[in-house]
Amino acid sequence: MSTAREVNFDGLIGPSHNYGGMSAGNLASAKNEGDLSNPREAALQGLEKMRLLVRAGFTQGILPPLPRPNFDLLVSAGFGGSDAEIIEAAAKQAPQLLKAAYSASSMWAANAATVSPSADTGDGRLHLTATNLSTMLHRSTEHPDTTATLLSIFEDEGRFGVHGALPAHADFADEGAANHVRLCGEHGGPGVELFVYGREAGESTVGFPARQTRLASESIARAHHLAPDHTVFARQARAAIEAGAFHNDVVCVGTLDTLFFHELAFEDTKATLAAVRRAGEGRFELKPVMVPQAEVPVEDAITSYLFNSQLLQWPGEDRLVLLAPMETQETESTRRFCERMVAGNGPIGRVQYVDVRQSMRNGGGPACLRLRVVMTDEEISSAHQGVMLDEAKIDALQDIVSRTYRDRLSPADLADPALASECRIAREALLEALDLSGLI
C-alpha cells in the first residue's frame, strides 16, 4: 500500500466575482442578486483559508481563474468588433449573456472535475474528468479552459489521466466532485467511490433542476477504470434538491471512513449506507454521522452550509476536523449540533470556522472552493510545482490581488470595457506567479 495524502486544490476567486444571480436552485445566489460584491476581499478570504491549511501542514494547491470575459461565448452569439465594442453591444442587447461571459464561478473548484486516485483505478493512474456543467449556461463554457488547466498541472501521462468533459447533453449533465465522495481506510489504500445523482437520463423534473445524472456518473466511473464492486451510485433526495441542495455536497461530506450527512440527503438512506458497507467490506468499516431533520432542519443546513465544509484529517489530531463557514456558527441549530457532536466520542472531534462570506453570498462554502485530489508523494512530485503553495507564494498572490482586483463590483459594472482589461492583467500576473504562462 502506497503512502498518499489528500491535496486540496482551491480555486482562486477571479476579479470578475459578482452577484449575478444566475444559478437556479442556489438560494444564496438568488437572494443576493444585484448586490455589490468585493472581488478583492473574496480572493483574499480564499487565500487566507489556504494559508490556514498550509500552516497546519497540509499540501495545498491552487487553480487559477479562467479568462474573463469569455469572448468566445459572446462572439458565438453574434457580437463582433473590438473587445470594447463587443462588451458595449452585449451590455445593451443581451445583459444576461454578458453576465454569463463574466461569471467567476470557476472559483468553486469542487465543480472542476471528478477525481479518482490511483489506488482505486484499474490502470494505476490518477484520473480526472473535467465537468461539462451543462445545466447552467454561465458554467457550461468553463470546461475547455478547465481541461487545459488540468492538463498543465497533471501533464505526466504515465501517472495521470485527464479526460475532457462528457457530451454537453442533458442526459450527461455532470457537476463533478460536488456529487462524489471517496471513502477508505486510509488515503493510500483502495476505497469506495460514492456517486450521487439527481435524476436518470431522459427523466424530467419539476422545480429546481437536478444537475447530475446517473449516466454521467456511470460514464466517469467507466473512464476511470473503477471496479464495479467498489463503486456505489445513490440517488439524492428530491426533497433536498427542492430545499436548495443543488449539489450533494450541500447536504453531505465524507473523508476516510466517515460519511457526514443530513437525514434528507439520500432518497433511500438505509439502502445507500448498506451499499457503501458492502462495497467497503474488507477495506474499511463505515462510520456514518447522520444529522437528524428534527435537530437541524434541512433549510438551516443549507443556509449555514454545515455540510459544504471540509472534513479533514488534521495533522497531529486523532479525530477529524470540520472546517466550516462562519455561518454555521451563527446559525443556532447547526452551532448546537456541532457542539454536541464534538463533545461526544464520534469520528469528528473539532469544528473550526473560517470566513469565506464573499463566496457564501454567491452560494459556495469552503468545500465548494476546493477540489480534493488524493496523491502519492511521487504523483505530487510529478505534478506542476508552480501551483503548490507555501506562505511566500500566498503572499505573492495576495499582493497581485491587492494591486489588480476591484474592491467593489456590481453586475452593472460589467458593461465597463475597462473591467475586461483589468481581468486580463490580473490573470496574466497570477499565471506568471504560478509558472503557468502557457495558459495566457
Overview of this protein structure:
The chain is an alpha/beta fold and 440 residues long. The chain has one domain (4-68, 103-439): 5-stranded Propeller (L-arginine/glycine Amidinotransferase, Chain A), CATH 3.75.10.20. It is built from 17 helices and 15 strands. The strands form five sheets. Strands 2-1-15 form a three-stranded mixed sheet. A three-stranded mixed sheet has the order 3-4-5. Strand 6 (180-184) and strand 7 form a beta hairpin. Helix 2 packs antiparallel against helix 16. The chain is globular.
Give the proportion of residues in helices.
Answer: 25-40%
**CATH fold node name:** L-arginine/glycine Amidinotransferase, Chain A
Query: Which blocks of ≥5 consecutive residues have pLDDT under 50?
Result: none
Distance between the termini: 39 Å
Strand content: 15-25%
CATH architecture: 5-stranded Propeller
The CATH class designation is Alpha Beta
Describe the main β-sheet briefly: 3 strands, mixed
Name of the CATH homologous superfamily: Succinylarginine dihydrolase
Query: How many domains?
Result: 1
Let me know the number of strands: 15
**Global structural class:** alpha/beta
Which radius of gyration do the C-alpha atoms yield? Answer: 20 Å
Gross morphology: globular
The spatial strand order of the largest sheet comes to: 2-1-15
Question: Roughly what is the average pLDDT, rounded to an integer?
Answer: 94
Determine the number of helices (DSSP H or I, runs of at least 4 residues): 17
